[in-house]
Amino acid sequence: MVLWARMGGAALGLVFLLTPLAASGAETSVLTLQQLTVMALQYSPEVKSTKSDVTLAQEQKNEAHGYRYPQFDAVALGGVVPDAQRGQVRQVGKNKTLYYPDPAGSIHGVNVFGNLTFTLMQPLYTFGKIAYREEAAANNIVVKKSGVDLKKGEVMFQVAQAYYGLILSNQGKDAVADARTYLRDARERVTRLLRVNSPNVKESDQYRLAMYEGGVEKFAAQAEEGAKVAYQALKALVGYGPSQDFRVPQELPTPAAPAGALDHYIRLSLELRPEFTQLKSGLAARQLLVDAAKADRYPSFFFAVLGQVAGAPGREHNPDPYTNDFFNGVGAMPAVGAQWHFDFGILKSKIGQARAELDKLQNDEKTALMGIPVEVARDYGKVQENYKGSLGMEKAYINARRWMVTAFSNFDMGLGKMEDIFQAFERFGAFRGDYLMALYDYNLAVAQLDKSSGAFRRNLPAEGKPEKDITPGRVQPVSGPALGTAK
Protein backbone atom coordinates (compact mmCIF):
# COMPACT_ATOMS: atom_id res chain seq x y z
CA MET A 1 0.00 0.00 0.00
CA VAL A 2 2.84 2.37 0.88
CA LEU A 3 4.61 1.43 -2.37
CA TRP A 4 1.50 2.22 -4.44
CA ALA A 5 1.11 5.54 -2.63
CA ARG A 6 4.73 6.44 -3.37
CA MET A 7 4.38 5.49 -7.04
CA GLY A 8 1.14 7.47 -7.28
CA GLY A 9 2.78 10.49 -5.70
CA ALA A 10 5.72 10.25 -8.11
CA ALA A 11 3.38 9.99 -11.09
CA LEU A 12 1.35 12.94 -9.86
CA GLY A 13 4.52 14.97 -9.42
CA LEU A 14 5.62 14.04 -12.94
CA VAL A 15 2.26 15.24 -14.30
CA PHE A 16 2.68 18.58 -12.53
CA LEU A 17 6.20 18.92 -13.91
CA LEU A 18 5.20 18.14 -17.49
CA THR A 19 2.04 20.26 -17.52
CA PRO A 20 3.87 23.61 -17.93
CA LEU A 21 5.99 22.13 -20.73
CA ALA A 22 2.91 20.92 -22.58
CA ALA A 23 1.22 24.25 -22.09
CA SER A 24 4.23 26.14 -23.38
CA GLY A 25 4.45 23.81 -26.40
CA ALA A 26 0.84 24.50 -27.27
CA GLU A 27 1.19 28.25 -26.78
CA THR A 28 0.59 30.33 -29.89
CA SER A 29 3.90 31.49 -31.33
CA VAL A 30 4.82 35.16 -31.74
CA LEU A 31 5.85 35.97 -35.32
CA THR A 32 7.84 39.07 -36.22
CA LEU A 33 7.54 41.10 -39.40
CA GLN A 34 10.71 39.43 -40.69
CA GLN A 35 9.28 35.93 -40.23
CA LEU A 36 5.88 36.81 -41.67
CA THR A 37 7.47 38.45 -44.70
CA VAL A 38 9.63 35.41 -45.45
CA MET A 39 6.59 33.14 -45.11
CA ALA A 40 4.52 35.38 -47.39
CA LEU A 41 7.23 35.48 -50.07
CA GLN A 42 7.52 31.69 -50.01
CA TYR A 43 3.75 31.17 -50.19
CA SER A 44 2.58 34.02 -52.44
CA PRO A 45 0.83 32.72 -55.60
CA GLU A 46 1.52 36.11 -57.21
CA VAL A 47 5.27 35.70 -56.71
CA LYS A 48 5.11 32.13 -58.04
CA SER A 49 3.21 33.38 -61.08
CA THR A 50 5.95 35.88 -61.91
CA LYS A 51 8.54 33.13 -61.42
CA SER A 52 6.68 31.16 -64.09
CA ASP A 53 7.26 34.13 -66.40
CA VAL A 54 10.99 33.75 -65.73
CA THR A 55 10.83 30.07 -66.63
CA LEU A 56 8.98 30.95 -69.83
CA ALA A 57 11.64 33.55 -70.72
CA GLN A 58 14.41 31.00 -70.09
CA GLU A 59 12.73 28.51 -72.40
CA GLN A 60 12.37 31.23 -75.05
CA LYS A 61 16.12 31.81 -74.82
CA ASN A 62 16.70 28.05 -75.11
CA GLU A 63 14.51 28.08 -78.21
CA ALA A 64 16.55 30.92 -79.74
CA HIS A 65 19.78 29.08 -78.91
CA GLY A 66 18.39 25.87 -80.42
CA TYR A 67 18.49 27.41 -83.91
CA ARG A 68 22.29 27.10 -83.75
CA TYR A 69 22.03 23.31 -83.86
CA PRO A 70 21.27 21.06 -86.87
CA GLN A 71 17.63 20.57 -87.80
CA PHE A 72 16.39 17.29 -89.22
CA ASP A 73 13.27 17.04 -91.38
CA ALA A 74 11.83 13.78 -92.71
CA VAL A 75 8.74 12.85 -94.70
CA ALA A 76 7.52 9.24 -94.86
CA LEU A 77 4.95 8.11 -97.40
CA GLY A 78 3.35 4.78 -98.17
CA GLY A 79 0.65 3.54 -100.51
CA VAL A 80 -0.06 1.56 -103.67
CA VAL A 81 1.66 1.98 -107.03
CA PRO A 82 1.33 0.20 -110.39
CA ASP A 83 3.84 -2.59 -111.09
CA ALA A 84 6.58 -1.70 -113.54
CA GLN A 85 9.49 -3.43 -115.33
CA ARG A 86 12.46 -1.72 -116.88
CA GLY A 87 12.52 -1.14 -120.62
CA GLN A 88 13.81 -3.97 -122.84
CA VAL A 89 15.76 -3.81 -126.08
CA ARG A 90 14.16 -5.89 -128.81
CA GLN A 91 15.29 -6.76 -132.29
CA VAL A 92 12.72 -5.83 -134.89
CA GLY A 93 14.07 -6.75 -138.24
CA LYS A 94 17.41 -5.06 -138.64
CA ASN A 95 16.66 -2.44 -136.03
CA LYS A 96 16.71 -2.54 -132.25
CA THR A 97 13.95 -0.80 -130.38
CA LEU A 98 13.29 -0.03 -126.72
CA TYR A 99 10.22 -1.85 -125.50
CA TYR A 100 8.39 -1.02 -122.20
CA PRO A 101 6.40 -4.00 -120.88
CA ASP A 102 4.49 -1.74 -118.48
CA PRO A 103 4.00 1.63 -120.16
CA ALA A 104 2.85 4.61 -118.11
CA GLY A 105 -0.54 4.69 -119.77
CA SER A 106 -1.62 1.23 -118.57
CA ILE A 107 -1.78 -0.68 -115.32
CA HIS A 108 -0.43 -4.22 -115.11
CA GLY A 109 -1.11 -4.97 -111.44
CA VAL A 110 -0.50 -2.89 -108.33
CA ASN A 111 1.67 -3.26 -105.27
CA VAL A 112 2.76 -1.27 -102.20
CA PHE A 113 5.59 1.24 -101.86
CA GLY A 114 7.36 3.12 -99.08
CA ASN A 115 9.39 6.33 -99.30
CA LEU A 116 11.38 8.28 -96.72
CA THR A 117 13.07 11.54 -97.69
CA PHE A 118 15.09 13.53 -95.18
CA THR A 119 17.09 16.72 -94.87
CA LEU A 120 19.69 17.49 -92.21
CA MET A 121 20.56 21.22 -92.15
CA GLN A 122 23.20 22.97 -90.06
CA PRO A 123 23.26 26.82 -90.11
CA LEU A 124 26.71 28.21 -90.81
CA TYR A 125 26.31 31.98 -90.95
CA THR A 126 23.13 34.03 -90.70
CA PHE A 127 24.39 37.65 -90.32
CA GLY A 128 23.23 37.66 -86.67
CA LYS A 129 19.66 36.42 -87.14
CA ILE A 130 20.19 33.83 -84.38
CA ALA A 131 22.71 35.65 -82.16
CA TYR A 132 20.70 38.88 -81.90
CA ARG A 133 17.50 37.07 -80.97
CA GLU A 134 19.26 34.84 -78.43
CA GLU A 135 20.84 37.86 -76.72
CA ALA A 136 17.50 39.67 -76.75
CA ALA A 137 15.93 36.63 -75.06
CA ALA A 138 18.67 36.74 -72.40
CA ASN A 139 17.79 40.37 -71.67
CA ASN A 140 14.14 39.38 -71.45
CA ILE A 141 15.05 36.95 -68.64
CA VAL A 142 16.49 39.90 -66.69
CA VAL A 143 13.25 41.79 -67.31
CA LYS A 144 11.16 38.92 -65.94
CA LYS A 145 13.43 38.42 -62.93
CA SER A 146 13.07 42.10 -62.10
CA GLY A 147 9.33 41.56 -62.38
CA VAL A 148 9.62 38.91 -59.66
CA ASP A 149 11.39 41.41 -57.39
CA LEU A 150 8.76 44.01 -58.19
CA LYS A 151 6.01 41.63 -57.10
CA LYS A 152 7.99 40.70 -53.97
CA GLY A 153 8.17 44.38 -53.06
CA GLU A 154 4.39 44.65 -53.35
CA VAL A 155 3.90 41.56 -51.17
CA MET A 156 6.35 42.87 -48.56
CA PHE A 157 4.45 46.14 -48.34
CA GLN A 158 1.11 44.31 -48.02
CA VAL A 159 2.54 42.25 -45.15
CA ALA A 160 3.89 45.37 -43.42
CA GLN A 161 0.56 47.14 -43.83
CA ALA A 162 -1.40 44.27 -42.27
CA TYR A 163 1.26 43.63 -39.59
CA TYR A 164 1.39 47.21 -38.34
CA GLY A 165 -2.39 47.48 -38.65
CA LEU A 166 -2.82 44.42 -36.41
CA ILE A 167 -0.45 45.79 -33.75
CA LEU A 168 -2.18 49.17 -33.92
CA SER A 169 -5.58 47.53 -33.41
CA ASN A 170 -4.26 45.47 -30.49
CA GLN A 171 -2.81 48.59 -28.88
CA GLY A 172 -6.16 50.27 -29.47
CA LYS A 173 -7.84 47.47 -27.52
CA ASP A 174 -5.35 48.05 -24.68
CA ALA A 175 -6.20 51.76 -24.77
CA VAL A 176 -9.89 50.84 -24.52
CA ALA A 177 -9.18 48.72 -21.44
CA ASP A 178 -7.29 51.62 -19.81
CA ALA A 179 -10.08 54.07 -20.69
CA ARG A 180 -12.68 51.77 -19.16
CA THR A 181 -10.60 51.58 -15.97
CA TYR A 182 -10.35 55.37 -15.72
CA LEU A 183 -14.06 55.81 -16.44
CA ARG A 184 -14.99 53.16 -13.87
CA ASP A 185 -12.88 54.91 -11.24
CA ALA A 186 -14.42 58.26 -12.16
CA ARG A 187 -17.96 56.84 -11.96
CA GLU A 188 -17.28 55.38 -8.52
CA ARG A 189 -16.06 58.79 -7.31
CA VAL A 190 -19.07 60.60 -8.80
CA THR A 191 -21.56 58.12 -7.33
CA ARG A 192 -19.96 58.27 -3.89
CA LEU A 193 -19.83 62.06 -3.80
CA LEU A 194 -23.39 62.48 -5.09
CA ARG A 195 -24.63 60.39 -2.17
CA VAL A 196 -23.09 62.83 0.28
CA ASN A 197 -24.17 65.89 -1.74
CA SER A 198 -20.59 67.01 -2.38
CA PRO A 199 -20.25 70.38 -4.18
CA ASN A 200 -17.37 68.98 -6.30
CA VAL A 201 -19.71 66.92 -8.50
CA LYS A 202 -22.95 67.55 -10.34
CA GLU A 203 -25.81 65.34 -11.47
CA SER A 204 -24.86 66.00 -15.09
CA ASP A 205 -21.43 64.43 -14.50
CA GLN A 206 -23.08 61.02 -14.68
CA TYR A 207 -24.41 61.76 -18.14
CA ARG A 208 -21.06 63.04 -19.28
CA LEU A 209 -19.45 59.82 -18.11
CA ALA A 210 -22.08 57.84 -19.99
CA MET A 211 -21.26 59.87 -23.10
CA TYR A 212 -17.54 59.00 -22.77
CA GLU A 213 -18.39 55.35 -22.18
CA GLY A 214 -20.42 55.27 -25.38
CA GLY A 215 -17.53 56.76 -27.33
CA VAL A 216 -15.14 54.24 -25.84
CA GLU A 217 -17.43 51.35 -26.84
CA LYS A 218 -17.51 52.64 -30.41
CA PHE A 219 -13.71 52.81 -30.48
CA ALA A 220 -13.56 49.32 -28.94
CA ALA A 221 -15.72 47.93 -31.76
CA GLN A 222 -13.51 49.60 -34.36
CA ALA A 223 -10.33 48.25 -32.78
CA GLU A 224 -11.80 44.74 -32.51
CA GLU A 225 -12.95 44.60 -36.12
CA GLY A 226 -9.72 46.20 -37.34
CA ALA A 227 -7.71 43.52 -35.56
CA LYS A 228 -9.83 40.75 -37.10
CA VAL A 229 -9.43 42.12 -40.62
CA ALA A 230 -5.66 42.67 -40.27
CA TYR A 231 -5.21 39.21 -38.73
CA GLN A 232 -7.15 37.49 -41.51
CA ALA A 233 -5.18 39.47 -44.09
CA LEU A 234 -1.89 38.29 -42.58
CA LYS A 235 -3.10 34.68 -42.45
CA ALA A 236 -4.10 34.87 -46.10
CA LEU A 237 -0.75 36.38 -47.10
CA VAL A 238 1.30 33.66 -45.36
CA GLY A 239 -1.04 30.81 -46.34
CA TYR A 240 -2.27 29.90 -42.86
CA GLY A 241 -5.44 27.83 -42.60
CA PRO A 242 -8.39 28.35 -40.22
CA SER A 243 -6.85 26.13 -37.53
CA GLN A 244 -3.43 27.82 -37.61
CA ASP A 245 -2.87 30.79 -35.34
CA PHE A 246 -0.07 33.14 -34.35
CA ARG A 247 0.48 36.36 -32.44
CA VAL A 248 2.45 39.52 -33.17
CA PRO A 249 4.49 41.75 -30.81
CA GLN A 250 2.47 43.99 -28.54
CA GLU A 251 3.94 47.38 -29.49
CA LEU A 252 4.78 49.21 -32.70
CA PRO A 253 8.52 49.67 -33.36
CA THR A 254 10.14 52.82 -31.99
CA PRO A 255 10.72 55.49 -34.66
CA ALA A 256 14.22 56.34 -35.86
CA ALA A 257 15.51 59.03 -38.18
CA PRO A 258 16.07 58.01 -41.86
CA ALA A 259 19.46 56.39 -42.45
CA GLY A 260 20.46 58.87 -45.19
CA ALA A 261 19.57 62.09 -46.93
CA LEU A 262 17.05 62.38 -49.75
CA ASP A 263 19.77 62.28 -52.44
CA HIS A 264 20.91 58.94 -51.07
CA TYR A 265 17.47 57.39 -51.56
CA ILE A 266 17.07 58.91 -55.03
CA ARG A 267 20.43 57.43 -56.10
CA LEU A 268 19.36 54.15 -54.55
CA SER A 269 16.13 54.13 -56.56
CA LEU A 270 17.98 54.75 -59.84
CA GLU A 271 20.22 51.81 -59.00
CA LEU A 272 17.81 49.32 -57.47
CA ARG A 273 14.24 50.01 -58.61
CA PRO A 274 13.05 46.92 -60.54
CA GLU A 275 11.39 49.19 -63.09
CA PHE A 276 14.74 50.70 -64.07
CA THR A 277 16.31 47.26 -64.38
CA GLN A 278 13.41 46.22 -66.59
CA LEU A 279 13.75 49.33 -68.75
CA LYS A 280 17.51 48.95 -69.20
CA SER A 281 17.27 45.28 -70.16
CA GLY A 282 14.14 45.94 -72.23
CA LEU A 283 15.90 48.68 -74.18
CA ALA A 284 18.84 46.37 -74.88
CA ALA A 285 16.47 43.60 -76.00
CA ARG A 286 14.50 45.92 -78.31
CA GLN A 287 17.68 47.24 -79.90
CA LEU A 288 18.81 43.66 -80.54
CA LEU A 289 15.45 42.84 -82.11
CA VAL A 290 15.86 45.84 -84.42
CA ASP A 291 19.26 44.48 -85.43
CA ALA A 292 17.75 41.02 -85.95
CA ALA A 293 15.01 42.47 -88.16
CA LYS A 294 17.70 44.16 -90.26
CA ALA A 295 19.63 40.89 -90.49
CA ASP A 296 16.54 39.20 -91.95
CA ARG A 297 17.26 41.09 -95.20
CA TYR A 298 20.45 39.08 -95.74
CA PRO A 299 20.83 35.41 -96.78
CA SER A 300 21.55 32.52 -94.44
CA PHE A 301 24.27 30.01 -95.32
CA PHE A 302 23.97 26.38 -94.31
CA PHE A 303 25.41 22.90 -94.67
CA ALA A 304 22.93 20.13 -95.50
CA VAL A 305 22.68 16.39 -96.03
CA LEU A 306 19.85 15.26 -98.35
CA GLY A 307 18.77 11.63 -98.55
CA GLN A 308 16.11 9.13 -99.53
CA VAL A 309 15.17 5.55 -98.65
CA ALA A 310 12.45 4.09 -100.90
CA GLY A 311 11.25 0.70 -102.10
CA ALA A 312 8.40 -0.90 -104.08
CA PRO A 313 8.39 -4.72 -104.47
CA GLY A 314 6.35 -4.58 -107.67
CA ARG A 315 8.68 -2.20 -109.48
CA GLU A 316 12.16 -3.00 -110.79
CA HIS A 317 14.98 -0.67 -109.75
CA ASN A 318 16.17 1.73 -112.43
CA PRO A 319 19.95 2.26 -112.24
CA ASP A 320 19.92 5.21 -114.65
CA PRO A 321 22.00 7.97 -112.90
CA TYR A 322 20.00 10.69 -114.63
CA THR A 323 16.69 9.42 -113.30
CA ASN A 324 15.60 9.85 -109.70
CA ASP A 325 13.24 6.97 -108.93
CA PHE A 326 10.82 8.08 -106.20
CA PHE A 327 9.73 4.50 -105.50
CA ASN A 328 13.12 2.73 -105.45
CA GLY A 329 16.41 4.09 -104.22
CA VAL A 330 18.72 4.59 -101.26
CA GLY A 331 21.19 7.42 -101.04
CA ALA A 332 22.36 10.64 -99.41
CA MET A 333 24.50 13.58 -100.45
CA PRO A 334 26.10 16.56 -98.68
CA ALA A 335 25.58 20.09 -99.90
CA VAL A 336 26.30 23.72 -99.03
CA GLY A 337 23.64 26.29 -99.75
CA ALA A 338 22.15 29.70 -99.05
CA GLN A 339 18.59 30.66 -98.26
CA TRP A 340 17.42 34.16 -98.96
CA HIS A 341 13.97 35.58 -98.40
CA PHE A 342 13.13 38.89 -100.00
CA ASP A 343 9.85 40.73 -100.17
CA PHE A 344 8.54 44.13 -101.11
CA GLY A 345 7.64 45.77 -97.82
CA ILE A 346 7.14 43.06 -95.15
CA LEU A 347 10.70 43.13 -93.81
CA LYS A 348 10.74 46.92 -93.91
CA SER A 349 7.52 46.98 -91.86
CA LYS A 350 8.95 44.59 -89.27
CA ILE A 351 11.99 46.82 -88.86
CA GLY A 352 9.68 49.79 -88.38
CA GLN A 353 7.67 47.92 -85.74
CA ALA A 354 10.82 47.01 -83.82
CA ARG A 355 12.01 50.61 -83.93
CA ALA A 356 8.62 51.90 -82.72
CA GLU A 357 8.74 49.55 -79.71
CA LEU A 358 12.28 50.71 -78.99
CA ASP A 359 11.18 54.37 -79.12
CA LYS A 360 8.32 53.59 -76.73
CA LEU A 361 10.68 52.08 -74.17
CA GLN A 362 13.04 55.02 -74.47
CA ASN A 363 10.19 57.41 -73.72
CA ASP A 364 9.08 55.20 -70.83
CA GLU A 365 12.58 55.45 -69.39
CA LYS A 366 12.45 59.25 -69.59
CA THR A 367 9.07 59.23 -67.86
CA ALA A 368 10.42 57.02 -65.08
CA LEU A 369 13.45 59.26 -64.66
CA MET A 370 11.10 62.18 -64.09
CA GLY A 371 8.50 60.44 -61.91
CA ILE A 372 10.40 58.07 -59.64
CA PRO A 373 12.57 60.72 -57.91
CA VAL A 374 9.39 62.66 -57.16
CA GLU A 375 7.82 59.53 -55.68
CA VAL A 376 10.91 58.87 -53.55
CA ALA A 377 10.95 62.50 -52.36
CA ARG A 378 7.31 62.24 -51.35
CA ASP A 379 7.85 59.00 -49.40
CA TYR A 380 11.02 60.36 -47.79
CA GLY A 381 9.11 63.42 -46.70
CA LYS A 382 6.42 61.20 -45.17
CA VAL A 383 9.05 59.36 -43.13
CA GLN A 384 10.51 62.63 -41.89
CA GLU A 385 7.08 64.08 -41.17
CA ASN A 386 5.85 61.06 -39.24
CA TYR A 387 9.16 60.64 -37.39
CA LYS A 388 9.05 64.20 -36.09
CA GLY A 389 5.31 63.98 -35.52
CA SER A 390 5.67 60.79 -33.47
CA LEU A 391 8.25 62.47 -31.22
CA GLY A 392 5.92 65.39 -30.63
CA MET A 393 2.87 63.18 -30.05
CA GLU A 394 4.86 61.01 -27.61
CA LYS A 395 5.64 64.11 -25.57
CA ALA A 396 1.99 65.22 -25.71
CA TYR A 397 0.73 61.72 -24.78
CA ILE A 398 3.08 61.37 -21.80
CA ASN A 399 2.21 64.76 -20.41
CA ALA A 400 -1.52 64.23 -20.98
CA ARG A 401 -1.25 61.05 -18.93
CA ARG A 402 0.53 62.95 -16.16
CA TRP A 403 -2.19 65.61 -16.33
CA MET A 404 -4.91 62.99 -15.90
CA VAL A 405 -3.14 61.26 -12.98
CA THR A 406 -2.65 64.65 -11.34
CA ALA A 407 -6.32 65.58 -11.90
CA PHE A 408 -7.44 62.37 -10.16
CA SER A 409 -5.03 62.99 -7.26
CA ASN A 410 -6.13 66.60 -6.84
CA PHE A 411 -9.76 65.55 -6.93
CA ASP A 412 -9.19 62.90 -4.25
CA MET A 413 -7.52 65.51 -2.05
CA GLY A 414 -10.39 67.96 -2.58
CA LEU A 415 -8.25 70.41 -4.56
CA GLY A 416 -9.87 69.86 -7.96
CA LYS A 417 -13.17 69.46 -9.69
CA MET A 418 -14.65 66.73 -11.81
CA GLU A 419 -14.42 69.09 -14.77
CA ASP A 420 -10.61 68.89 -14.50
CA ILE A 421 -10.77 65.08 -14.76
CA PHE A 422 -13.03 65.27 -17.79
CA GLN A 423 -10.74 67.70 -19.61
CA ALA A 424 -7.66 65.62 -18.80
CA PHE A 425 -9.42 62.42 -19.92
CA GLU A 426 -10.44 63.96 -23.24
CA ARG A 427 -6.95 65.21 -24.04
CA PHE A 428 -5.30 62.01 -22.86
CA GLY A 429 -7.54 59.87 -25.08
CA ALA A 430 -7.03 62.14 -28.10
CA PHE A 431 -3.25 62.36 -27.74
CA ARG A 432 -2.87 58.64 -27.08
CA GLY A 433 -4.81 57.83 -30.23
CA ASP A 434 -2.82 60.38 -32.25
CA TYR A 435 0.45 58.96 -30.89
CA LEU A 436 -0.44 55.42 -31.90
CA MET A 437 -1.50 56.60 -35.36
CA ALA A 438 1.77 58.52 -35.69
CA LEU A 439 3.73 55.33 -34.89
CA TYR A 440 1.66 53.38 -37.42
CA ASP A 441 2.08 56.05 -40.11
CA TYR A 442 5.82 56.23 -39.48
CA ASN A 443 6.41 52.48 -39.79
CA LEU A 444 4.21 52.25 -42.87
CA ALA A 445 6.05 55.22 -44.41
CA VAL A 446 9.36 53.43 -43.83
CA ALA A 447 8.02 50.37 -45.63
CA GLN A 448 6.79 52.55 -48.49
CA LEU A 449 10.17 54.29 -48.77
CA ASP A 450 11.90 50.90 -48.90
CA LYS A 451 9.59 49.97 -51.76
CA SER A 452 9.84 53.22 -53.74
CA SER A 453 13.63 53.49 -53.34
CA GLY A 454 14.20 49.83 -54.25
CA ALA A 455 16.09 49.28 -50.98
CA PHE A 456 13.97 46.21 -50.29
CA ARG A 457 15.88 44.36 -53.05
CA ARG A 458 19.05 44.45 -50.95
CA ASN A 459 17.20 42.76 -48.10
CA LEU A 460 15.41 40.03 -50.06
CA PRO A 461 16.17 36.55 -48.71
CA ALA A 462 18.07 34.27 -51.04
CA GLU A 463 16.12 31.24 -52.22
CA GLY A 464 16.26 28.63 -49.48
CA LYS A 465 17.69 31.10 -46.89
CA PRO A 466 14.71 32.48 -44.97
CA GLU A 467 16.83 33.57 -42.02
CA LYS A 468 18.00 36.78 -43.74
CA ASP A 469 16.75 39.97 -42.08
CA ILE A 470 14.24 41.65 -44.39
CA THR A 471 12.68 44.04 -41.89
CA PRO A 472 11.87 47.38 -43.59
CA GLY A 473 13.97 50.35 -42.57
CA ARG A 474 17.28 48.45 -42.38
CA VAL A 475 18.78 50.39 -45.32
CA GLN A 476 22.55 50.61 -45.58
CA PRO A 477 24.30 53.51 -47.38
CA VAL A 478 25.24 52.97 -51.03
CA SER A 479 28.67 52.22 -51.26
CA GLY A 480 29.08 27.08 -77.71
CA PRO A 481 28.67 23.52 -78.98
CA ALA A 482 30.69 21.69 -81.61
CA LEU A 483 28.15 22.26 -84.39
CA GLY A 484 26.75 25.52 -83.02
CA THR A 485 28.77 27.99 -85.08
CA ALA A 486 25.92 29.99 -86.59
CA LYS A 487 25.22 33.57 -85.57
Describe this structure in words.
This protein folds into two domains: 31-69 and 127-298 and 346-477, Outer membrane efflux proteins (OEP), CATH 1.20.1600; 71-125 and 300-339, no CATH class. The protein has 487 residues and is an alpha+beta fold. The chain is built from nine helices and six strands. The protein is 61% helix and 13% strand. Mean pLDDT is 82; it is low at 1-25 and 473-485. The strands form two sheets. A four-stranded antiparallel sheet has the order 1-4-5-6, with no helix packed on it. A two-stranded antiparallel ribbon has the order 2-3. The longest helix has 67 residues, at 129-195.
Question: What is the 3D shape?
Answer: elongated
Instruction: Tally the helices.
Output: 9
- In terms of DSSP E residues, the strand content is 5-15%
Q: What is the distance, rounded to the nearest whole angstrom, between the alpha carbons of the first and last residues?
A: 95 Å
Strand order of the largest sheet: 1-4-5-6
Mean pLDDT across the residues is 82
Reading the helices and strands in chain order gives: HHHEEEEHHHHEEHH
How many strands, which pairing sense, and closed or not: the largest β-sheet?
Answer: 4 strands, antiparallel
- CATH architecture of the largest domain, please? Up-down Bundle
Number of strands: 6
What would CATH call the class of the largest domain? Mainly Alpha
In the residues, how many domains can be counted? 2
Can you tell me the residue ranges where pLDDT is under 50 for at least 5 consecutive residues? 1-25, 473-485
Using only C-alpha atoms, the radius of gyration works out to 42 Å
Q: What is the assembly state of the chains in this entry? A: single chain
Fraction of residues in helix: 55-70%
Structural class: alpha+beta
Determine the CATH superfamily of the largest domain. Outer membrane efflux proteins (OEP)
In the CATH hierarchy, the third-tier topology of the largest domain is known as Outer membrane efflux proteins (OEP)
